């Protein structure tokens, strides 16, 4: 048996080098949603922390939003597209099963022969993608990896669903990961609990939907497209009773404590979940807490890079700061890691 070479030249360390986002043009305030779900601006703000969200228009596709965020991230990292070896794109709302959105984005950006693939891990998707990107860089399989979290969840929303219609939203965030002199992405703490898949799921698969359409055509009846559904209480309970352990594991894996943190960027699911985690972890007052949910809603796989960029853009955190990231959601899957925050590009 011939000996195989384990890897090309490995890099000792990986770090996030630059970050960019795309926020869809259309801002949808609570007032636009409340009548259809018998709710109120006050209820939505107090129970979720959301005041408004962005919903994409037809031209703001998964690929277009990803490419826009990626261009900003590359500018922030002072790299060109041809210096990227791999694209790892996390999403749960790309309606095309093939080719991967990552491959189309790579081509759109002018990359030639970059490895490209998609990851489906719900709202934990960005942190899963980041962990994989860091490992690719450290193993020497890629020098620079473009990590993208992107969603068009408005395509999957039943506008009359009181649990989901006001929460989910659209957008994209991208981070370039590359080699570094010191470690900038701690080991991931991750896992999943498939026994709770019913807590967040698409209510029917496309085979069932096509059968429903055919039956409706034959009988003159109606059919309803697949929608995302959530048992909000079950997810909320899991989040506030289990995820502080995931955070502690991520801190432990990186060899730091909450006292070492400058920022906390949890998935923007519900500001009350963020509050519960901050309290359970005994987060010091000076730690900057991401609250992008207020104006952005819950953008699932895009929420962490978007919230990270908002903290950096507002000045509440700066490049190089130590931040704990935590993604969690459908699966139920979670992933968290400690990072040194990347640079943002100067605004146009
Ligand atoms: O991103 C993936 C991960 N997702 C999450 O982490 C989401 C986790 N879950 C949540 O964020 C929350 O469960 C929700 C924000 C979705 C719901 O908040 P809640 O406090 O758990 O509401 P609830 O379902 O327990 O309902 C409380 C009350 C009920 O009324 P009564 O029975 O107390 O009179 C509901 O009928 O609020 C009522 N309600 C509403 N009222 C106005 C439920 N939905 C609405 C609504 N507007 N949209």
UniProtKB/TrEMBL annotation:
Gene name for this UniProt entry: fabH_1
Keywords: Acyltransferase, Cytoplasm, Fatty acid biosynthesis, Fatty acid metabolism, Lipid biosynthesis, Lipid metabolism, Multifunctional enzyme, Transferase
Gene Ontology terms describing biological process: fatty acid biosynthetic process
Matching Pfam families: ACP_syn_III (PF08545), ACP_syn_III_C (PF08541)
Compartments it resides in: Cytoplasm
Associated pathway: Lipid metabolism; fatty acid biosynthesis
Name of protein: Beta-ketoacyl-[acyl-carrier-protein] synthase III
Domain Beta-ketoacyl-[acyl-carrier-protein] synthase III C-terminal, residue spans: 251-340
Chief localization: cytoplasm
Assembly: Homodimer.
Role of this protein: Catalyzes the condensation reaction of fatty acid synthesis by the addition to an acyl acceptor of two carbons from malonyl-ACP. Catalyzes the first condensation reaction which initiates fatty acid synthesis and may therefore play a role in governing the total rate of fatty acid production. Possesses both acetoacetyl-ACP synthase and acetyl transacylase activities. Its substrate specificity determines the biosynthesis of branched-chain and/or straight-chain of fatty acids.
Entry GO terms, CC: cytoplasm
Domains: entry comment: The last Arg residue of the ACP-binding site is essential for the weak association between ACP/AcpP and FabH.
Region (ACP-binding): 268-272
Lineage: Bacteria, Bacillati, Actinomycetota, Actinomycetes, Mycobacteriales
């Amino acid at each position: 048996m011939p000996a195989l070479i384990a890897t090309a030249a490995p890099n000792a360390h990986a770090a996030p080098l630059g970050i960019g986002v795309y926020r869809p043009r259309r801002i949808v305030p609570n007032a636009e949603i409340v009548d259809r779900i018998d709710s109120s601006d006050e209820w939505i703000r107090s129970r979720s922390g959301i005041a408004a969200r962005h919903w994409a228009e037809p031209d703001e596709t998964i690929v277009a939003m990803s490419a826009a965020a990626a261009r900003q991230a590359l500018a922030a990292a002072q790299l060109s597209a041809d210096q990227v070896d791999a694209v790892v794109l996390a999403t749960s709302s790309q309606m095309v099963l093939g080719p991967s959105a990552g491959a189309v984005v790579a081509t759109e950006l002018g990359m030639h022969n970059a490895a490209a693939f998609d990851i489906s891990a719900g709202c934990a998707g960005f942190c899963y993608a980041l962990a994989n990107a860091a490992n690719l860089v450290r193993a020497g399989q890629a020098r620079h990896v473009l990590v993208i979290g992107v969603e068009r969840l408005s395509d999957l929303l039943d506008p009359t669903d009181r649990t989901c219609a006001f929460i989910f939203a659209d957008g994209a965030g991208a981070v370039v990961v590359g080699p570094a002199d010191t470690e900038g992405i701690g080991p991931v703490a991750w896992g999943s609990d498939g026994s709770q898949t019913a807590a967040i799921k698409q209510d029917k698969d496309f085979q069932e939907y096509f059968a429903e359409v055919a039956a409706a055509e034959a009988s003159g009846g109606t059919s309803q497209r697949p929608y995302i559904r959530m048992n909000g209480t079950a997810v909320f309970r899991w989040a506030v009773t289990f995820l502080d352990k995931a955070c502690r594991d991520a801190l432990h894996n990186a060899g730091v404590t909450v006292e070492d943190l400058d920022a906390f960027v949890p998935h923007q699911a519900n500001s009350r979940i963020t509050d519960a985690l901050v309290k359970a972890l005994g987060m010091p007052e000076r730690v900057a807490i991401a609250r992008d949910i207020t104006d952005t809603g819950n953008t699932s796989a895009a929420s962490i890079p978007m919230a990270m960029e908002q903290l950096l853009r507002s000045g509440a955190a700066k490049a190089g700061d130590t931040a704990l990231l935590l993604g969690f959601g459908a699966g139920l899957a979670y992933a968290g890691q400690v990072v040194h925050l990347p640079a943002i590009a100067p605004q146009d």
